[in-house]
Task: structure prediction
Amino acid sequence: MNQTTPVTRKEIWSWAMYDFANSGYTTVIITAIFNAYFVSVIAGGAEWATLLWTTILAISYAIVMVIGPVLGAWADRRAAKKRMLLYSTVGCVLTTLALAPLAAQGSNLLLLVCIVFIASNVFYALGENFTAAFLPELAKSEHIAKVSAWGWSLGYVGGLVTLGASLAVVTTQQAAGAPATSYVPWTIVVTAVIYAAASLPVFLFLNERATPQDDVAPAPLLVKLRASLAQLSKHPDLRRFFLAGIAYQAGLAVVITLASVYAAEALGFKMADTIKLLLVVNVSAAIGAFVFGYVQDRIGHKPTLIVTLVMWITTVIVAYVWHTKTGFWIAANMAGLCLGASQSGGRALVGVLSPKSKVAEFYGLWGLVVRLAGIVGPMLYGVVTWVTGGNHRLALLLTGGMFVVGLALLRAVDVDRGERDAKAVDALTVG
Result:
Protein backbone atom coordinates (compact mmCIF):
# COMPACT_ATOMS: atom_id res chain seq x y z
CA MET A 1 0.00 0.00 0.00
CA ASN A 2 1.26 3.50 -0.83
CA GLN A 3 2.44 5.74 2.00
CA THR A 4 -0.01 8.46 0.88
CA THR A 5 -3.09 6.27 1.43
CA PRO A 6 -5.26 7.99 4.08
CA VAL A 7 -5.08 6.55 7.57
CA THR A 8 -8.41 5.43 8.99
CA ARG A 9 -9.61 5.59 12.58
CA LYS A 10 -9.98 1.81 12.49
CA GLU A 11 -6.28 1.46 11.72
CA ILE A 12 -5.24 3.74 14.56
CA TRP A 13 -7.55 1.86 16.93
CA SER A 14 -6.22 -1.53 15.78
CA TRP A 15 -2.62 -0.31 16.20
CA ALA A 16 -3.41 0.96 19.70
CA MET A 17 -5.02 -2.39 20.52
CA TYR A 18 -1.63 -4.02 20.13
CA ASP A 19 -0.44 -1.90 23.06
CA PHE A 20 -3.51 -3.21 24.92
CA ALA A 21 -2.51 -6.77 24.01
CA ASN A 22 1.17 -6.78 24.91
CA SER A 23 0.88 -4.66 28.06
CA GLY A 24 -0.62 -7.61 29.89
CA TYR A 25 2.63 -9.49 29.31
CA THR A 26 4.89 -6.82 30.72
CA THR A 27 2.47 -6.13 33.60
CA VAL A 28 1.99 -9.72 34.79
CA ILE A 29 5.23 -11.39 33.70
CA ILE A 30 7.79 -8.61 34.09
CA THR A 31 6.32 -6.23 36.67
CA ALA A 32 3.72 -7.68 39.00
CA ILE A 33 3.51 -11.45 39.45
CA PHE A 34 5.98 -13.71 37.67
CA ASN A 35 9.08 -11.69 38.58
CA ALA A 36 8.34 -11.80 42.33
CA TYR A 37 7.31 -15.47 42.02
CA PHE A 38 10.56 -16.23 40.22
CA VAL A 39 12.65 -14.63 42.98
CA SER A 40 10.75 -16.10 45.93
CA VAL A 41 9.65 -19.53 44.66
CA ILE A 42 11.51 -20.63 41.53
CA ALA A 43 14.86 -19.28 42.80
CA GLY A 44 13.92 -20.13 46.39
CA GLY A 45 14.43 -16.64 47.80
CA ALA A 46 18.22 -17.08 47.74
CA GLU A 47 20.55 -14.08 48.12
CA TRP A 48 21.38 -14.40 44.43
CA ALA A 49 17.74 -14.70 43.33
CA THR A 50 17.26 -11.03 42.37
CA LEU A 51 20.58 -11.06 40.52
CA LEU A 52 19.54 -14.20 38.61
CA TRP A 53 16.26 -12.55 37.60
CA THR A 54 18.06 -9.46 36.32
CA THR A 55 20.61 -11.67 34.56
CA ILE A 56 18.08 -13.60 32.49
CA LEU A 57 16.40 -10.33 31.63
CA ALA A 58 19.80 -9.03 30.53
CA ILE A 59 20.42 -12.09 28.34
CA SER A 60 17.07 -11.68 26.58
CA TYR A 61 17.69 -7.98 25.99
CA ALA A 62 21.21 -8.65 24.72
CA ILE A 63 19.76 -10.99 22.10
CA VAL A 64 17.25 -8.33 21.01
CA MET A 65 20.01 -5.71 20.92
CA VAL A 66 21.79 -7.72 18.25
CA ILE A 67 18.91 -8.99 16.13
CA GLY A 68 16.42 -6.11 16.55
CA PRO A 69 18.12 -3.55 14.27
CA VAL A 70 18.96 -6.27 11.75
CA LEU A 71 15.38 -7.50 11.51
CA GLY A 72 14.20 -3.88 11.39
CA ALA A 73 16.44 -3.12 8.43
CA TRP A 74 15.22 -6.29 6.68
CA ALA A 75 11.59 -5.32 7.35
CA ASP A 76 12.21 -1.86 5.85
CA ARG A 77 13.63 -3.34 2.64
CA ARG A 78 10.91 -5.96 2.27
CA ALA A 79 8.02 -3.81 3.61
CA ALA A 80 7.47 -6.65 6.08
CA LYS A 81 6.84 -4.94 9.43
CA LYS A 82 3.40 -6.50 9.75
CA ARG A 83 4.68 -9.97 8.88
CA MET A 84 7.48 -9.71 11.44
CA LEU A 85 5.01 -8.42 14.02
CA LEU A 86 2.88 -11.52 13.43
CA TYR A 87 5.84 -13.88 13.84
CA SER A 88 6.98 -12.22 17.07
CA THR A 89 3.45 -12.19 18.51
CA VAL A 90 2.83 -15.88 17.82
CA GLY A 91 6.26 -16.68 19.25
CA CYS A 92 5.59 -14.75 22.46
CA VAL A 93 2.14 -16.26 22.99
CA LEU A 94 3.36 -19.84 22.49
CA THR A 95 6.45 -19.53 24.70
CA THR A 96 4.43 -17.79 27.41
CA LEU A 97 1.94 -20.67 27.39
CA ALA A 98 4.89 -23.08 27.62
CA LEU A 99 6.15 -21.17 30.67
CA ALA A 100 3.02 -21.94 32.71
CA PRO A 101 3.46 -25.69 33.33
CA LEU A 102 7.18 -25.17 33.96
CA ALA A 103 6.49 -22.49 36.57
CA ALA A 104 4.14 -24.91 38.35
CA GLN A 105 7.18 -27.09 39.18
CA GLY A 106 8.65 -24.39 41.42
CA SER A 107 12.43 -24.66 41.78
CA ASN A 108 12.63 -28.11 40.17
CA LEU A 109 13.07 -26.82 36.61
CA LEU A 110 14.99 -23.58 37.25
CA LEU A 111 17.23 -23.76 34.16
CA LEU A 112 14.40 -24.66 31.78
CA VAL A 113 12.22 -21.85 33.19
CA CYS A 114 15.07 -19.41 32.55
CA ILE A 115 15.48 -20.56 28.94
CA VAL A 116 11.77 -20.42 28.08
CA PHE A 117 11.36 -17.03 29.76
CA ILE A 118 14.30 -15.65 27.76
CA ALA A 119 12.66 -16.84 24.54
CA SER A 120 9.28 -15.32 25.42
CA ASN A 121 10.81 -11.98 26.37
CA VAL A 122 12.83 -11.85 23.12
CA PHE A 123 9.66 -12.35 21.11
CA TYR A 124 7.83 -9.74 23.21
CA ALA A 125 10.58 -7.15 22.75
CA LEU A 126 10.75 -7.71 18.99
CA GLY A 127 6.99 -7.22 18.75
CA GLU A 128 7.33 -3.98 20.67
CA ASN A 129 9.91 -2.78 18.13
CA PHE A 130 7.77 -3.60 15.11
CA THR A 131 4.54 -2.11 16.41
CA ALA A 132 6.39 1.13 17.24
CA ALA A 133 7.75 1.26 13.68
CA PHE A 134 4.19 1.76 12.35
CA LEU A 135 3.75 4.99 14.32
CA PRO A 136 5.28 7.47 11.81
CA GLU A 137 3.03 6.01 9.07
CA LEU A 138 -0.07 6.66 11.18
CA ALA A 139 0.54 10.25 12.35
CA LYS A 140 2.30 13.40 11.17
CA SER A 141 5.07 14.72 13.39
CA GLU A 142 2.84 17.38 14.98
CA HIS A 143 0.39 14.68 16.15
CA ILE A 144 2.71 11.73 16.67
CA ALA A 145 2.97 12.17 20.45
CA LYS A 146 -0.81 12.25 20.77
CA VAL A 147 -1.29 9.04 18.77
CA SER A 148 1.55 7.36 20.66
CA ALA A 149 -0.12 8.39 23.91
CA TRP A 150 -3.45 6.91 22.79
CA GLY A 151 -1.70 3.58 22.27
CA TRP A 152 0.16 3.75 25.55
CA SER A 153 -2.98 4.75 27.46
CA LEU A 154 -4.93 1.87 25.94
CA GLY A 155 -1.96 -0.32 26.81
CA TYR A 156 -2.41 0.46 30.49
CA VAL A 157 -6.07 -0.46 30.15
CA GLY A 158 -4.90 -3.79 28.76
CA GLY A 159 -2.56 -4.15 31.70
CA LEU A 160 -5.47 -3.43 34.03
CA VAL A 161 -7.68 -6.04 32.37
CA THR A 162 -5.00 -8.74 32.48
CA LEU A 163 -3.91 -7.85 36.00
CA GLY A 164 -7.53 -7.73 37.19
CA ALA A 165 -8.20 -11.19 35.76
CA SER A 166 -5.00 -12.42 37.42
CA LEU A 167 -6.02 -10.91 40.76
CA ALA A 168 -9.31 -12.82 40.57
CA VAL A 169 -7.34 -16.05 40.08
CA VAL A 170 -4.91 -15.26 42.91
CA THR A 171 -7.49 -14.21 45.51
CA THR A 172 -9.81 -17.14 44.73
CA GLN A 173 -7.01 -19.68 44.97
CA GLN A 174 -5.48 -18.10 48.07
CA ALA A 175 -8.88 -18.18 49.79
CA ALA A 176 -9.04 -21.90 49.03
CA GLY A 177 -5.61 -22.36 50.60
CA ALA A 178 -3.83 -23.21 47.34
CA PRO A 179 -0.05 -22.61 47.10
CA ALA A 180 1.48 -20.14 44.65
CA THR A 181 2.63 -23.02 42.44
CA SER A 182 -1.06 -23.72 41.75
CA TYR A 183 -2.33 -20.27 40.82
CA VAL A 184 0.62 -18.32 39.39
CA PRO A 185 0.80 -20.61 36.31
CA TRP A 186 -2.86 -19.80 35.60
CA THR A 187 -2.08 -16.07 35.62
CA ILE A 188 0.51 -16.82 32.92
CA VAL A 189 -2.11 -18.64 30.82
CA VAL A 190 -4.55 -15.73 31.24
CA THR A 191 -1.84 -13.34 30.06
CA ALA A 192 -1.07 -15.36 26.92
CA VAL A 193 -4.74 -15.77 25.96
CA ILE A 194 -5.52 -12.05 26.33
CA TYR A 195 -2.38 -11.19 24.36
CA ALA A 196 -3.44 -13.43 21.48
CA ALA A 197 -7.05 -12.25 21.40
CA ALA A 198 -6.40 -8.51 21.73
CA SER A 199 -3.68 -8.52 19.07
CA LEU A 200 -6.03 -9.74 16.34
CA PRO A 201 -7.27 -6.27 15.21
CA VAL A 202 -3.79 -5.14 14.21
CA PHE A 203 -3.44 -8.08 11.82
CA LEU A 204 -6.95 -7.67 10.45
CA PHE A 205 -7.12 -3.91 9.89
CA LEU A 206 -3.68 -2.26 9.95
CA ASN A 207 -2.15 -1.70 6.51
CA GLU A 208 1.52 -1.90 5.59
CA ARG A 209 2.20 1.40 3.78
CA ALA A 210 5.88 0.89 3.05
CA THR A 211 6.93 -0.35 -0.38
CA PRO A 212 9.67 -2.94 -0.94
CA GLN A 213 13.05 -1.51 -1.83
CA ASP A 214 15.51 -2.84 -4.36
CA ASP A 215 16.78 -6.16 -3.12
CA VAL A 216 20.42 -6.52 -2.20
CA ALA A 217 22.56 -9.48 -1.30
CA PRO A 218 22.09 -10.48 2.35
CA ALA A 219 24.89 -9.40 4.68
CA PRO A 220 26.05 -11.00 7.94
CA LEU A 221 24.26 -9.88 11.10
CA LEU A 222 27.14 -7.85 12.52
CA VAL A 223 27.72 -6.16 9.17
CA LYS A 224 24.07 -5.09 9.10
CA LEU A 225 24.27 -3.87 12.68
CA ARG A 226 27.36 -1.80 11.92
CA ALA A 227 25.60 -0.39 8.86
CA SER A 228 22.63 0.66 11.01
CA LEU A 229 24.93 2.35 13.52
CA ALA A 230 26.70 4.11 10.64
CA GLN A 231 23.34 5.45 9.45
CA LEU A 232 22.68 6.72 12.96
CA SER A 233 25.90 8.76 12.87
CA LYS A 234 24.32 10.89 10.13
CA HIS A 235 21.62 11.97 12.61
CA PRO A 236 23.53 13.51 15.55
CA ASP A 237 20.48 14.66 17.51
CA LEU A 238 18.86 11.23 17.29
CA ARG A 239 22.18 9.77 18.46
CA ARG A 240 22.28 12.20 21.39
CA PHE A 241 18.73 11.25 22.31
CA PHE A 242 19.67 7.57 22.20
CA LEU A 243 22.48 8.24 24.70
CA ALA A 244 20.05 10.06 27.00
CA GLY A 245 17.62 7.20 26.49
CA ILE A 246 20.13 4.60 27.68
CA ALA A 247 20.42 6.47 30.99
CA TYR A 248 16.78 7.25 31.78
CA GLN A 249 15.44 4.00 30.31
CA ALA A 250 17.79 2.16 32.68
CA GLY A 251 15.87 3.78 35.53
CA LEU A 252 12.55 2.87 33.91
CA ALA A 253 13.72 -0.72 33.49
CA VAL A 254 14.42 -0.98 37.22
CA VAL A 255 10.93 0.28 38.04
CA ILE A 256 9.21 -2.02 35.54
CA THR A 257 11.13 -5.21 36.36
CA LEU A 258 11.75 -4.84 40.09
CA ALA A 259 8.89 -2.80 41.59
CA SER A 260 7.06 -5.81 42.97
CA VAL A 261 10.35 -7.40 44.08
CA TYR A 262 11.15 -4.22 46.04
CA ALA A 263 7.65 -4.15 47.51
CA ALA A 264 7.89 -7.78 48.63
CA GLU A 265 11.51 -7.90 49.77
CA ALA A 266 11.93 -4.41 51.29
CA LEU A 267 8.42 -3.62 52.53
CA GLY A 268 6.78 -7.00 53.08
CA PHE A 269 3.97 -6.70 50.51
CA LYS A 270 1.98 -9.88 49.85
CA MET A 271 1.25 -10.85 46.24
CA ALA A 272 -2.41 -9.79 46.39
CA ASP A 273 -1.41 -6.44 47.94
CA THR A 274 1.17 -5.86 45.20
CA ILE A 275 -1.37 -6.63 42.48
CA LYS A 276 -3.87 -4.19 44.00
CA LEU A 277 -1.17 -1.51 44.13
CA LEU A 278 -0.21 -2.07 40.50
CA LEU A 279 -3.86 -1.99 39.42
CA VAL A 280 -4.07 1.55 40.82
CA VAL A 281 -0.67 2.45 39.34
CA ASN A 282 -1.85 1.33 35.89
CA VAL A 283 -4.72 3.82 36.16
CA SER A 284 -2.22 6.57 37.07
CA ALA A 285 0.01 5.51 34.17
CA ALA A 286 -2.87 5.56 31.68
CA ILE A 287 -3.85 9.05 32.80
CA GLY A 288 -0.24 10.22 32.62
CA ALA A 289 0.34 8.80 29.14
CA PHE A 290 -2.91 10.30 27.80
CA VAL A 291 -2.50 13.77 29.33
CA PHE A 292 1.18 14.12 28.57
CA GLY A 293 0.58 13.10 24.96
CA TYR A 294 -1.44 16.30 24.49
CA VAL A 295 1.04 18.29 26.57
CA GLN A 296 3.88 17.03 24.39
CA ASP A 297 2.15 18.10 21.18
CA ARG A 298 1.55 21.53 22.72
CA ILE A 299 4.85 22.40 24.46
CA GLY A 300 7.22 20.10 22.58
CA HIS A 301 8.84 16.70 22.96
CA LYS A 302 11.98 17.71 24.80
CA PRO A 303 10.35 19.99 27.44
CA THR A 304 7.81 17.29 28.23
CA LEU A 305 10.49 14.65 28.71
CA ILE A 306 12.42 17.06 30.95
CA VAL A 307 9.32 17.50 33.12
CA THR A 308 8.80 13.73 33.41
CA LEU A 309 12.46 13.10 34.33
CA VAL A 310 12.26 15.72 37.09
CA MET A 311 9.14 13.90 38.31
CA TRP A 312 11.05 10.60 38.28
CA ILE A 313 13.85 12.03 40.40
CA THR A 314 11.29 13.38 42.87
CA THR A 315 9.58 9.98 42.99
CA VAL A 316 12.78 8.14 43.88
CA ILE A 317 13.51 10.66 46.66
CA VAL A 318 10.02 10.19 48.11
CA ALA A 319 10.32 6.38 48.02
CA TYR A 320 13.77 6.46 49.62
CA VAL A 321 12.94 8.93 52.40
CA TRP A 322 9.39 7.73 53.16
CA HIS A 323 10.26 4.06 53.64
CA THR A 324 6.82 2.74 54.56
CA LYS A 325 3.98 1.01 52.72
CA THR A 326 2.07 4.32 52.63
CA GLY A 327 5.09 6.14 51.24
CA PHE A 328 5.54 3.46 48.59
CA TRP A 329 1.88 3.75 47.55
CA ILE A 330 2.34 7.48 47.02
CA ALA A 331 5.69 7.09 45.23
CA ALA A 332 4.33 4.28 43.05
CA ASN A 333 1.44 6.41 41.81
CA MET A 334 3.80 9.32 41.16
CA ALA A 335 5.85 6.86 39.11
CA GLY A 336 2.72 5.79 37.27
CA LEU A 337 1.96 9.33 36.15
CA CYS A 338 5.39 9.77 34.57
CA LEU A 339 5.91 6.14 33.47
CA GLY A 340 3.52 6.22 30.53
CA ALA A 341 4.50 9.79 29.66
CA SER A 342 8.24 9.09 29.46
CA GLN A 343 7.81 5.82 27.54
CA SER A 344 5.25 7.19 25.09
CA GLY A 345 7.18 10.44 24.68
CA GLY A 346 10.42 8.65 23.90
CA ARG A 347 8.73 6.45 21.30
CA ALA A 348 7.17 9.49 19.63
CA LEU A 349 10.43 11.45 19.58
CA VAL A 350 12.24 8.62 17.79
CA GLY A 351 9.57 8.80 15.08
CA VAL A 352 10.06 12.57 14.71
CA LEU A 353 13.85 12.30 14.43
CA SER A 354 13.90 9.30 12.04
CA PRO A 355 13.65 9.42 8.22
CA LYS A 356 10.51 7.56 7.11
CA SER A 357 12.62 5.48 4.72
CA LYS A 358 14.52 3.97 7.67
CA VAL A 359 11.92 4.06 10.39
CA ALA A 360 11.84 0.34 11.22
CA GLU A 361 15.65 0.23 11.21
CA PHE A 362 15.91 3.16 13.63
CA TYR A 363 13.14 1.78 15.83
CA GLY A 364 15.22 -1.38 15.87
CA LEU A 365 18.09 0.73 17.17
CA TRP A 366 15.75 2.35 19.71
CA GLY A 367 14.88 -1.16 20.77
CA LEU A 368 18.62 -1.72 21.16
CA VAL A 369 18.80 1.36 23.39
CA VAL A 370 15.86 0.22 25.52
CA ARG A 371 17.24 -3.31 25.83
CA LEU A 372 20.74 -2.07 26.71
CA ALA A 373 19.12 0.07 29.40
CA GLY A 374 17.18 -3.01 30.47
CA ILE A 375 20.50 -4.73 31.01
CA VAL A 376 22.36 -1.88 32.72
CA GLY A 377 19.67 -0.73 35.17
CA PRO A 378 18.39 -4.03 36.57
CA MET A 379 21.87 -5.60 36.58
CA LEU A 380 23.24 -2.72 38.66
CA TYR A 381 20.26 -3.09 40.99
CA GLY A 382 20.78 -6.85 41.24
CA VAL A 383 24.51 -6.54 41.89
CA VAL A 384 23.95 -3.93 44.62
CA THR A 385 21.39 -6.11 46.43
CA TRP A 386 23.67 -9.13 46.17
CA VAL A 387 26.82 -7.35 47.38
CA THR A 388 25.01 -5.57 50.24
CA GLY A 389 23.09 -8.64 51.39
CA GLY A 390 19.71 -7.36 50.19
CA ASN A 391 19.92 -3.57 50.62
CA HIS A 392 17.08 -2.63 48.26
CA ARG A 393 16.99 0.99 49.48
CA LEU A 394 20.56 1.62 48.35
CA ALA A 395 19.78 0.03 44.99
CA LEU A 396 16.73 2.30 44.70
CA LEU A 397 18.89 5.38 45.32
CA LEU A 398 21.15 4.30 42.47
CA THR A 399 18.07 4.28 40.23
CA GLY A 400 17.52 7.99 40.89
CA GLY A 401 21.04 8.67 39.64
CA MET A 402 20.14 7.12 36.28
CA PHE A 403 17.37 9.69 35.79
CA VAL A 404 19.73 12.53 36.71
CA VAL A 405 22.22 11.40 34.05
CA GLY A 406 19.43 11.06 31.47
CA LEU A 407 18.23 14.58 32.22
CA ALA A 408 21.74 16.00 31.77
CA LEU A 409 22.23 14.24 28.41
CA LEU A 410 18.80 15.22 27.10
CA ARG A 411 19.74 18.91 27.26
CA ALA A 412 22.09 18.44 24.26
CA VAL A 413 19.28 17.29 21.93
CA ASP A 414 17.95 19.85 19.39
CA VAL A 415 14.61 18.43 18.21
CA ASP A 416 13.96 20.99 15.45
CA ARG A 417 17.38 20.44 13.92
CA GLY A 418 17.02 16.67 14.15
CA GLU A 419 13.63 16.74 12.42
CA ARG A 420 15.05 18.89 9.61
CA ASP A 421 17.89 16.38 9.14
CA ALA A 422 15.41 13.50 8.90
CA LYS A 423 13.25 15.30 6.32
CA ALA A 424 16.34 16.18 4.29
CA VAL A 425 17.28 12.48 4.06
CA ASP A 426 13.76 11.61 2.95
CA ALA A 427 13.89 14.35 0.29
CA LEU A 428 17.15 12.93 -1.09
CA THR A 429 15.67 9.42 -1.08
CA VAL A 430 12.62 10.55 -3.06
CA GLY A 431 14.78 12.57 -5.39
